[in-house]
Every structure is written in C-alpha cells, then in structure tokens.
Amino acid sequence: MTAPTTSLRIRLTLIDPPAGVTYGIQRGKGAKYSVDFAQTPKRGDVIFDFAVDVVERNGAANFLGEYVQGPPGRRFIYVDVGKYAGQDRTPWARRTIIRLDGITSSRVRRASKAGHRLAARIRGTGSDGGPSCATVAPIGGWTVERFMRRATKASGGR
User: What is the pTM of this model?
Assistant: First the structure.
C-alpha cells in the first residue's frame, strides 16, 4: 500500500539579504529549470511562500515536487541568486541550499494541519558580505507556525 501524499505549505524568509539582488525559488532541475517568486528587495527581508509534497516512508518524511532537489534522504530547496534568478546586470551568480533532511515526520504532521506551515529563517548575507550561498542552516531550525488565511471573494470572505 502506498502512503498518502500530503501538500505542505512552506515559508522561507531570507533575513536582510543584500539589496538590489534578485532572489527566487528554483523549480525543476538541470538545464530546464525556471525560477518562481523572484524578488529584488530594496531593503529588508525576502519571504517565499510555496508548497511541496511529502510522503512518509519507513517513518521518515520524503519531500517531493517541483521545488525539491536532490536524492531521497538528502533533499533540499534551492534559492537562486542574481544571474541564476534571471537578473542580467549583477556580479552575483549563486545558489543557496536549504536542507530538508532534518525535518521529522512528526513536525511534518503538525505543519500539515489546516492553518499551519513549516517555516525557516535563513541568513540572507554571507560571510563575504554578498548574498548567502552554499548550504545555509535555518536559524533555530525548521519550525511549525500558525497563519491566518486571507479571505477572498471566491470564498465569500468568510
């Protein structure tokens, strides 16, 4: 029997990354990837809200979907920076790796409840003063947070 797949809301926050540089979440792999949610901040944090799929296998969370990279047991999300995020006039061409393999199944179950999401806060500036790159651990690890859904006209605003 195949375990059910769950859609999991994710919020990644880059804390005060260098201004004027474009940041985005990589969708897909290899030469055919694209960048979603591209933002070029003038100042302040950059926030990405998106969803990934997850299935529990042998008691461990296995992350899947178009934003997930890497082999099972070593999954991660790429934050593309500068040229990799589609920005032409920049000296920056970097990727930041946000690892998923330390997230427990119990944390996934809590985060997949209605009105909850999995969240990580990442340092946006690297030790060289430029945008963070390579593998960056979430500050305080991955957390589960509650959020309020915004009312829409389609939902009747209730």
Answer: 0.89
